[in-house]
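Weekly structure sync, notes
Attendees: PL (lead), two postdocs, one rotation student
Agenda item 3: pending single-chain targets
PL asked that the sequence for the first pending target be pasted directly into the notes so everyone works from the same version. It is reproduced below exactly as submitted, 298 residues in total.
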Amino acid sequence: MAIDILAAFENEPPHLDFIWPGFLAGTVGALVAPGATGKSYWALEAVMSIACSVTCGDLLKLGPAQTGRVVYLAGEDPESVLIGRVHAIGQHFNQQARQEIASNLSLEPIMGRRLNVMAQPDLNWLIQLGAGARLIVLDTLSRTHCLDENSNGDMSRLVSTLEHIAVETGAAILYLHHVNKGSAREGQADQQQAARGASALVDNVRWCGFVAKMSESEAKKLSDRPYDRQPVGNDRRGFFVRYGVSKQNYALVEADKWYERGDGGVLLPVDLSASRNNDNNSKKTTPFRVGEVDEERW
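Predicted structure, written out during the meeting:
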């Protein structure tokens, strides 16, 4: 049905409903990262924040606008690993949060199932499974189709199919994806063009986030110790990852966030400031908090 132009001129526009800041409900988004960075942990904690209305359920401090049912299809990890992750994350919740998440989150391992959303039977199954959900997560995208990842035509068809699922179910679709080898090697996982395969995988979605490991340079410039501001250092930088947004169509991009890996690999927010060593190497000597940009690098 065509938009009523006159009504749009004269009436207040509808409120935009975001899953979390910048990721619009009913659209398709991507989360990209190198392998073994923590994107699946990030996504699992993120969906729990959507599934839980209790404050302590938002471990990542994403600030979701509202809660709802979430469907998470895990294609890379076996059931035993997923249960271990849920258990580790659950140590940070009270009983009420655990019950709400258990009621609203459907976590289904599909490793080995050979799911293909381009085939009608699997497409119908996913639409039925996700009907009425607020968010559907595909972890990872490559486990859900049999098309040529490097073909813009094929990937445009794939994203269009995901948009069809979003329209039919009312859910936002988030797919997890890997970065290309060059971006991973050069430490450029935070760039929009870092996603592996055809450009349509990012160009055709409305939101793209990233998770990146702390670089050697960042480990020298940043500190998690406010009392003496010693740098994180190369030996500890593997415990820290940065989350941010490389593409956002419907809102201003928020500052990046830093997380530290806790017990079991759980990602928890951490405040980082400029290290003492950085005072002599940078004009910016004021400590900065989670997500602020180091102007020397960016």
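Discussion points:
- The chain has a mean pLDDT of 92.
- The domain at 15-215+239-260 is CATH 3.40.50.300 (Rossmann fold).
Action: rotation student to compare against the earlier draft before next sync.
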